[in-house]
Specification:
Layout (H helix, E strand, L loop, with lengths): L1 H17 L8 H46 L10 E2 L6 E17 L28 E4 L4 E8 L6 E8 L15 H8 L7 E9 L2 E7 L24 E11 L3 E8 L5 E2 L15 E10 L2 E15 L5 E16 L5 E10 L11 E4 L4 E3 L2 E14 L2 E12 L3 H8 L10 E13 L5 E14 L4 E15 L1
Parallel strand pairs: 10-15
Antiparallel strand pairs: 1-2, 2-3, 2-4, 2-21, 4-5, 5-6, 6-7, 7-8, 8-9, 9-11, 11-12, 12-13, 13-14, 14-17, 15-16, 17-18, 18-19, 19-20, 20-21
Helix pairs in contact: 1-2
Amino acid sequence: MQFKLTTLTASIALMFAAAMPAQAQTAKEFEELRAEMRKLRAELDALKGQKQETANAALADRVEQVELRAKDAVVLGDIPNSFRLPNSDTSVRVYGFAELNMVHEFKGDNSDQDYSTFLPYAPLKGTAAGNRKGRTYLTGRTSRFGIEAATPSPYGPIAMKIEGDFNNDPRTGNSAVYGSAGNIFTQQATNSYNFRLRHAYGQFGGLLAGQTWSTFMDLDTLPETVDFNGPIAATFIRQPQIRYTYPAAGMGNFTVALENSVSYVLDNTATVTTAGFSRVPDLIGRWDKAFDWGTVSLRALSHEHRIDDGAGVNLSRRGWGVAASGMVKTVDNDFLTWTVTGGNGIGRYLNYIEGAFYDAGNNRILMEKAAGVVLGYQLKPSETLRYNFALGYQKNFKNEYTDFAVANGLDSGRFGINRKLWQAHIGAIWNPVKGVDIGTEYIFGRRTTLAGEDGDMSRINLSAKYNFN
């Protein structure tokens, strides 16, 4: 095309040159020459138009290809490892992991209560349950799946999160392995476990509404363990709540929350009474602050123990609890964590307390007085290897609560009230490649009942976790 235009232009130039001595040409010849020029000019214009049409067609084709690629492209979202929904400002992240746990119980077989550790009900020495040793089992029930999203707004991102795992036996609704025939039937053929809700909440600005970890729980200072439950003596609760956090510049974060109330009261046989009646939500306040050397968190709660049977018994007592925790940076990437928790009638906010008693003879609610401490240390010699050490200790102090337990024979036996418990974890987690965690951990614990009986727990937990996103 370019060659044709150049040749045509040159021909016109030669004709102009030939026409210079126009005075020697006849009028007829001159008109013929002008006609030829018009013809050549029309051909030139046609060629130019044809070139423009070709260029326009090529451009339209390129635009269409770009649009098709844009439709197929995955656009990075505003939150880490997320993507943008098509024709939307919403960023979505899908995450989770497939995990296998292998547990070998050297002694203190706890599998009738939980696949994971549950020291408060560990079998006692010298009993038939205590003599059962050496059980081994594998499970994939802790595998997890979640989705989180965020949409920008003039007032900040609107975020949400939904997460669950499969730690729920479909026949019993618990996390035991061999506690009943139902647990055995579940493992007989397919090992199918139900999906259960862990988190489901939305967040806008400082306001959170939905189900997640309790505001009284400092998740960041709990030691990392291979064991699913972790050490005794800390708070371990997820529940529905309404929470507001106010970040004060230079002063840390101030948080207040109303959380789901469960009036957990036992009768004189240590059975939970269904006359428990929740009237108002639990109230929790919290302060957190980060420093160059680490973090500190202070928390307090007030909740109600109430019984209302609708037939004349209507009692109420308020329990309270306080907690402090923190993280201290040590050498390189290593750090120390600590948590202290206690209170009078703190109940389920200290893992693990049985709950208040109802003294029907005196028509009173009796509350426990208890405290616990958890220490943790992480040693990280490389980016692919970390060692974790954890120790938890918890004690029930003597008061009218423990006196009532002793008087009613609730101070001994497998499910007797404990005086003290301690539990230690020593483990390592290795990342051979990104997204893969291989863990091993040895756990030892001892419980002592109010009657002075001891029960030991000794086990090793191996795990393989394959993370995505």
